[in-house]
Amino acid sequence: MSVIAIVSESYCEGEEIAEKVADRLEYSLVGTELFETVAKKFDISVDKVRRAMSGERTLLNAFTRDYERSVIYVKAVLSQMLVQQYFVYHGVAMRLIPRAITHVLRVGIVGEQPFRVAAAVAAEGCKVSEAERRIEKRDERRLAWAHQHLDRGFWEPDSFDLIIPRPAKTVEDAVDLILGAITRTVLRPTDRSIQAQLDFLLATRVNLALMERGQHFSRVVADGGRVEVKIRTKRAPAGALGRTVHALRQESHLEEAYEICRAVKGVGEVSVVPAAMVTSTLLVDDEREYVVTLSERLQRRDIVSDVAFDGQQALDAVEAEEPAVIVLDLKMPGINGMEVLERVRREHPRVHVIVVTGHGSAEDEERARALGAFDYLKKPVDITTLAARIAQARQLHQNGAEE
User: Is residue 257 a part of any domain in this protein?
Assistant: First the structure.
């Protein structure tokens, strides 16, 4: 039999469905207990783990890295759980399970907006407008979390074996669909699937070992005991002396990572290389549909981008991995765009910021340019113009020039 991993949009009765599936199969049910196990094993608060898995980052995260650490801890515990079988897991962490582990049945439960809003009103006793706001905020965080940890959207169809719509399917319909799906031969453990499971476990051990020694990595892949690690390194400074010192430090950094990996039990051959420095673009706007659509339109012009939905997310993203270009809205709740612009230009002078706003005044434009904005564009922005300006800013970044 398979492990059943279920994730649901908020207010879709996902927990009830998971519980009924577990009861029918006489499987154990795992939900928030996963976070409690992580907290106990790694001596971290349950709240920190819960916030990390919901996409919340605190103001101190740039220094503590609790957000990134918590996700790695969750992967470590989850990889150990998968060695067992016969359990149902309900929660967002199911999206961290590698697709190569094919004996895990991945189920997504999604709901129509009116259905979710009505359920939120009933459950929370709030007004419709407040229910809509809460749902939108949770969806935004989950999307941002997926972009950071999965490099794709959260609800990509090929990430699931079964997607169940609510309320088109009742709770009992959903349970029957899941029970029917787990009998498929393709979902039974195979030698290849079990090896993928062991590789996931080994990769998380390497992740932990590197993190405990202060190594920042972008990708760890295990394949039958062979481990490939791509390490993030800082960019070389300008000048011959600066580049020479940087090269020596990078070589030492990679050698240390190699030794850390070799010391992990189960690791055979090791390959450690610097991660390719991609001159990335970060889109920042609190209008979720607008920024996601903008990202898709830019991708069709070969401009790959990450997204952030508020000022704090943007600042955290820049601290985690400095982009080449930020496309920034001005009017946002919390930390507004002007504050983001000022801090980025002061703390990361090589990052070029293009302001794109529908609410700015002549005074705003004057101040933005004085703070160092690469350009100031008005909504609705012409996509060809924006793409061209991003390309120009990226070229300056690659050349090591400041505006």
Answer: yes
Q: Pseudo-torsion of CA 42, 46, 49, 50, nearest 10°?
A: 160
> Does residue 403 lie within any of the structural domains?
no
Work out the angle at residue 309's Cα, subtended by the Cα atoms of residues 33 and 384, and round it to the nearest 5 degrees: 140
Helices 240-262, 191-212: axis angle to 10 degrees equals: 130
Query: For the chain, which residues score pLDDT lower than 50?
Result: 402-403
What per-residue confidence (pLDDT) applies to 340?
A: 95
Q: Do residues 32 and 139 touch, judged by C-beta distance below 8 A?
A: no
Residue 322's closest CA among 356, 275, 277, 368? Answer: 277
Q: Which domain holds residue 68?
A: 3-187
CA atoms of 342 and 92, how far apart (whole Å):
35
Render pLDDT for 117-139 as a digit per residue (tens, 0 to 9): 999 999 999 999 999 999 988 88
**Based on the domain organization, do 227 and 285 belong to the same domain?**
no
CATH number of domain containing 308: 3.40.50.2300
Q: Identify the pLDDT of residue 222.
A: 92
Strands 352-357, 270-274: pairing is unpaired
